From TrEMBL:
Domain Lysozyme inhibitor LprI-like N-terminal, first and last residues per copy: 40-135
Name of the protein: Lysozyme inhibitor LprI family protein
Originating species: Qipengyuania benthica
Range of residues in the leader sequence: 1-21
Keywords from the UniProt entry: Signal
Length: 155
């Protein structure tokens, strides 16, 4: 990973340039960014929606770390039957879900494509789907047959 291909460096440079170019367009006064109880502008609503999504994503990542440990521990005690293990299945499911979330929420945002409302629609969609996914992941911390917490799950 120490060496980057020229194409990768170009993509990274383009991404950095794009982020830098777009940054001034989303800047709003600090008082608006901090008041998500009653945001007054679309820009403030967009920022609050992003912050709400960031909280949902942080919780998903907390549960993910716990579930990853549980899945890897379950693999230590599983018999080899030629099927993917707990960890491989969890990772495959999460990668598929991430692709679904991003494509679905992009589509939701297209209802306001190119408009100032689009970022709020995308963030709201991601928040909703992320909270639902977090709940599904929490359910995986419990044995579906016995109802007991799986080994390694926080109690």
């Amino acid at each position: 990973m120490r060496q980057l291909r020229a194409g990768g460096m170009i993509a990274l440079s383009l991404a950095t340039a794009l982020a830098t170019a777009l940054a001034p367009q989303v800047a709003i006064p600090a008082r608006e960014a901090a008041d998500c109880a009653e945001p007054l502008t679309q820009a403030a609503m967009n920022i609050c929606a992003v912050q709400d999504y960031a909280r949902a994503d942080a919780e998903l990542n907390r549960v993910w770390r716990e579930l990853r440990i549980v899945a890897k521990r379950a693999d230590e005690h599983s018999r080899a039957d030629g099927r993917p293990g707990h960890w491989a299945s969890l990772l495959e499911a999460q990668r598929a879900w991430l692709g679904y979330r991003d494509a679905h929420c992009r589509l939701v945002g297209y209802d306001a494509r190119g408009g100032s409302l689009e970022p709020m629609l995308v963030s709201g969609c991601k928040t909703e789907l992320t909270r639902a996914r977090t709940q599904r992941m929490r359910e995986l911390l419990t044995n579906q047959v016995s109802g007991e917490a799986k080994a390694g799950a926080e109690k």
